[in-house]
Amino acid sequence: THTFYEVKGDVAVVRINDPNSKVNTLSIQMQKEMAEVMDEVWANDAVKSAVLISSKPGCFIAGADINMIQSCNSADEVTTLSQEGQKMFERIEKSPKPIVAAINGSCLGGGLEFAIACQYRIATKSKKTVLGTPEVMLGLLPGAGGTQRLPKMVGLPSAFDMMLTGRNIRADKAKKMGLVNQLVDPLGPGLKSPEERTIDYLEEVAIEYARGIVNKKIPIRKEKGRMEKIQDYVMSFEFVRNQIYKTVHSKVMKQSKGLYPAPLKIIECVKTGVEQGPVAGYLSESQNFGQLARTSESGALIGLYHGQVACKKNHYGVPQREVKTLAILGAGLMGAGVAQVTVDKGVHTVLKDTTVSGLARGEQQVYKGLNDKTKKRNITSFQRDSILSGLTGQLDYSGFEKVDMVIEAVFEDIHIKHAVLKEVEAVVSPHCIFASNTSALPIKDIAAASKRPDKVIGMHYFSPVDKMQLLEIITTDQTSKDTTASAVAVGLKQGKVIIVVGDGPGFYTTRCLAPMLAEAVRVLQEGVDPKKLDALTTSFGFPVGAATLADEVGIDVAAHVAEDLGKAFGSRFGGGNVEVLKTMVDLGFKGRKSGKGCYIYQPGLKTKEVNPDIGDVLEQFRMTPNPAVSSDSDVQYRLVSRFVNEAVLCLQEGILKNPLEGDIGAVFGLGFPPCLGGPFRFVDSFGADKLVEKMRRFEAVYGNQFTPCQLLLDHAKDSSKKFHK
Amino acid sequence: MSSMLLSTIPQVSSSLSESYCLTLLSVQTKSKKTLARPGVKNVVLVEGVRTPFLLSGTTGLLQRTGLPKDAVDYIIYGTVIQEVKTTSILRHNINQRTLGAGFSDKIPAHTVTMACISSNQAMTSGVGLIAAGQCDSIVAGGVEFMSDVPIRHSRKMRKTMLSLSRAKTLGQRLGLIGSIRMAHLSPELPAVAEFSTAETMGHSADRLAAAFGVSRVEQDEFAVRSHTLAKKAQDAGLLQDVISFKVPGRDIVSKDNGIRVSSMEQMGKLKAAFIKPHGTVTAANSSFLTDGASAVLIMSEEKALAMGYKPKAYLRDFVYVSQDPKDQLLLGPTYGTPKVLERAGLTMSDIDVFEFHEAFAGQIMANLKAMDSDWFGQTYLGKKSKVGTPPMEKFNLWGGSLSLGHPFGATGCRLVTTVAHRLQKEGGQYGLLAACAAGGQGHAMVIEAYPQ
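^ Those are the sequences you sent over. The predicted structure of the assembly is below.
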């Protein structure tokens, strides 16, 4: 059973516990049982009040059951689901017996909608306790009364903030916002484990409050403060509210480029509810929920969600040895970034560089990363210092015999990589794994210098390491399964979403990015301004424009990769002239890190101007655009189709194991438009035939760079073939 | 204040020295085995005294006759809220002011700090010096002036002030002065908060009590017990370690003024002090912070006997423990007790006198429940079963920190002296004291009665 209740004195304690899952979700079964239990509670005369609590540590209710929504066949069906949820929570809201939601762990989506329908909410201050409405991240909206109740509870601005960002709110913040009424401290070990005892304690306190509410000793609504009264007064003017809707709408449009329907629908539902009353509001909510659930954007985002969950698991088993000490060679931006995400998980981390200044810079980067967290109050200064005590900076290989894994992040030169590999193998113990954080050099070429190639693997991180979620792990034919398992385990500990791909020049991610960047250079050479290029890419859904992306990656790195991969793959990787990039590097325009690239970067300035000197460079390499393939839309598809075609080719060649990892890698590592769900889902929804047709048109002008690969052609021929079912 | 304490020791002791001959003859214990070990010096408690623990502020010193010049080799004092001046003040108090009373200015002194077990640390440091053969007699003690704690400027202000002292030109100075903002001026008030978790001790105690399911009633009952027993002991004149003390401008104070026996009904009326509103720790079931000082004279047994003192007790095995400062902040006694018993080769049933520092009634009850839990013993103490609880008829019979008060640095000596006095009075052989302290630390010590 998912739900049952017991009566303690005059309080019914309703416990939620999905027996088939680690988390509670509002599945059909759960909702049915909940309704039955609540009917009994309402009918039981001995019961004066109720406490709603989860028996699972770390989870109250994590949300609605996504599969339940996805298995619907029409928008109307989803609308009906939404209306059933609305009805149930309406009964909870109108309950004659006060219901106290006792929240420990995640209280998200439908779980939060349930909680805010209750008369009172008590939450534990545990780090695991988070409240939020993440529906927007799945292309949906809070469809069980959330868009109607939240504005009343926390005010319009906060409600919009919650529903449009979908971010998690910690318990103490929730208390300040008025989302929960009372907080309870998590307990340490007593006569039971901390988790169990904390749940018991939460229940005890909640029962006390439930009785207090019945006895009128505890007010359900707290007296409004002066600021709240002022806010209410201001909000009572229609023109103020209209101004808010307008501001929020334009903000959403600016950020989403209108590519995401859900945020706009959320605004619409809230507006309808506030301006036209609850009947219209709830109807708008359920209907829009039904429509959103059927959009390709929602399908794409839910696909990414499932993919993310799948890529946060280790499919290679438990490694024989846990990595307790990790060494990183090279304290540059990457090396220090990897050090930061490792040491803050409690793994002893050695950061080695060849120069004192390099090491000092790297250690400072780690310190700054952690200190920023302290400033944001994510960790205390004590935790910061205690984390930093796990980091050892050094210039030599002393103590490397105790290291379980080495990740090298030295300069991208095969000779340097070989030298480093040999140095490491001379000092480490036999079980130690050697991982290379290269973005393009084939791992087997690096492993060629190794005495134990089974212990060599690629771990491709993305910059900035502490922000980018993806880790691309590259295995060669010789890499042992245990080595892979160990690398995945380390990556998961570092909090990464992981794809494991086969070896080859550029692996998967770099290989997809390179043709797109080559095309971007050609577009620039054809006279398109960097700002215009950025606008074209961002309006397609890329979070970062192509010119800005090149600056972020580093023009020198881009030139290096373009040259390497150009050699490996030949003319297919052509397009823009590599000399453009090389000339820029020679002039010192290495991108953001050097202050100049396609743009000029000035510290402290948020707006950036196009680098005026880049015009001369482009003038040198000017190409004449062909008007037949140079419309805005054509330019967009030239960029995207090369990316997508290369991704499909990676699957065809076996570099990728499945389309899912391909989508995750493209979205989380390269910023492929999330609303499209990744290159493979894009082919599915856009239509392989339509894409091939466009490519053939480009091929006629530019040649083999646009030749569709065989797998793409197969899908174009047979429209029933889909990468995702 | 301190000098007064020291100067009373020989007075009390000399009266006992008449029985000196007798004691020499009866060094051997009569009933149980002694904890004396070959090769380890016997360290004895000669005397322990304290001022009344006062809720009001006290300063100043009372001149009394002092120890013989060569009586003390070294002085160690525990104190918690400390500033740079403290050491010199103590030296000032201990030595200079009492020169007239016969103290030597040649006696070195230092302070130690270990939160609520600072004076325990002072004593055990002394035991170490004696055991190592470096000293023969030590004065150890603790002192706390809660009513006059140093309050620091904010870090920003301190930085500005320090830079100001280094500024060379008027322009630099003016620039620095101009940089002072309102935020600079707010002082850093010392709180009884953990450095590592920023949680106040009362808050932690409330969580601890909740973790062990200690009810409000249980806590209030224990607090009433403490006050009742303290009142009884005070009325019966058992608190003989207390010496009178003249508060300048006021009368002489000769007893602890925090003992208040209240009814359960009165106790129940109080609101939670830390976790509001549903917490269980209140002002009445917490120890209160007071001014106070305590001191003990400890010596090697030979020295004490040679000087004609009648020792009160042997200071035997002791341990310090440390655990998670967040969730187990106040569980020191639970961790320390089994460890010190094991060291001494004793069991719970061998102990006749228990004295635990009562930081909070909830903390004592939580410790008792932890010691009574098989699960806790197995999971956190690495034992096969529970530690076992001290029988209440042997436990804190003369009151405790809840009723007498808790001047951070001075409580440890009170515990030792009380154990010694209770052993004498009740005729027991072994006593055990235990205390918790900030930082998740704890202390426990076994004391053996000196043969009567």
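The longest strand of chain B covers residues 313-322. Chain B is about 35% helix and 15% strand.

Shout if you want it in another format.
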